[in-house]
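USER:
Working in pairs, take the chain set out below, taking as long as you need, and write a paragraph about the fold.
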Amino acid sequence: MGKEDSLQQKKKNEAHLSQLASVGQIAAGIAHEVKNPLTAVKGFLQLLKEKNEERYITIAEAELNNALAILQNLLQVSKPDMDEEPFERLDLTVELNSVIQLFQDQFYRVTVIKNLENPGTYINGKKNQLKRAFFNLLKNAFEAIEGKGTIVIGHEASEDTVTVTIQDSGSGIPKEKLNLLGTPFYTTKQNGTGMGLTFVFSVIYQNNGFIEVESEEESGTVFKISFARDNGSAETKEKPRLTLQKTTELKDFFTVNRDKFEEQLLLEAVNVRDKIDEIMGIGNINLLENAHKLVLYVVEGREHEVVHFAKTEGIMWAKHSLTLAFKLEWIQAVRRVMWDFLFHFNRGKEELQAKEHFFALEKRINELIDQFLNHLFMSYSQFKDDLIRTQREMVEDLSVPIIPLTQHTSILPLIGPIDATRSITIEEKVINEIGANRIKTLIIDLSGAVHMAPEVIHKLMNVIDGVKMMGCEVIITGLRAEVVRLIIGLGLTFENKAITKGTLQQALEDHLS
């Protein structure tokens, strides 16, 4: 990048930051006037849940949560430096790898290609802010791909610059809209707010980076982010030493130092910590309490409880459609903080004994955490599969509604197109219902049926034959002219199979009179 180009890009960045600052001032005023009343209303809605119709209150509460989330995002944009996180030397290949792992639940449909060249090169930036920005960019890339696709993540370094590229094969963005990216409330998503990309642009600029976007509709989008390379000496950055209360038992160590554990966990789980209250509100899931519970189960080696807890958590996250990537990041953060605490627990012990104890713990703890993740994912997937199957069965029942008219008479109104799959469902349900409920007369109304293919007519004739074999009389009503012509053309007839009536009303009058 030449010096002149760099100056032009810097001016563009400054102009963009100025626009964001103006929007931020408005946002801060809105937040001051609106956030507190909304929070109060939310509290009253939670109280009303106990005494009123829950589904309306739940909807209202969800809308309020959305409003509060938007206000919080606006506040973050209005005060990008409110986070006191210091600048530090970062190897972006390390940070990108850790963020990519949060999307493992999407790897079955999207191929992720990593071209992370020149590892060991550094930039100077705010680690947690940048990880959140890359998380948002990757989340957008996955969401832009319907069905299967590809995301290519690149990292390369020149003498002066470190560049990260994120390229997806998704739906793309119209050329005339590219300049609007990063503007608050502009979004290409149906239910988006645009605040995610606004945060990304703001963070990149605040970390002295440049961002370029190329896109073509139906061909995908490329985000290219460049930072100045830090060519200083790669000194090892020593982590601040924790001051923890010593105990003889490992379980007691995690219990008495729980506040410190939660503090470290919130520092590690960058993308989840801002979602804790939201997740609590949606699914009544206390992430910090559950993390402490998991840690105690693991350090005590209680395998049965770990597996049961994982299954319960999987169901809860699936039931409330919570993002699985957040759960994965949270558990991996729990694992990292646990090892940090175990290091402190073993510090000062006789060297050989400490090493043997530490390696024994490593095997046991990693196995239990891996078991937790495996059972969590299986439970999550099983619940989703069961939900889809239940919904499919419900749709099938609604597509073949057998309505009891009297103890021994039922009506089957067939509405809409009847294809081969639906005709199989009709056969199965009709035969089962007649056998189970001892139906003696079945009125099949075809006045609302459309597009009956020849194979469907043949299947319907077979169903009528089966019904008669079970001792049930069939009355056909509402035959339209085009259906009759199709039946005649196939050389078929309802003679000796069923009674035909012009309309359902006529059949009811004749049968019930």
User: Anything to note?
Assistant: The chain is about 55% helix and 15% strand. The domain at 82-235 is CATH 3.30.565.10 (Heat Shock Protein 90). The first strand starts at residue 88 and ends at 90. Confidence is low (pLDDT under 50) at residues 77-82, 234-239.
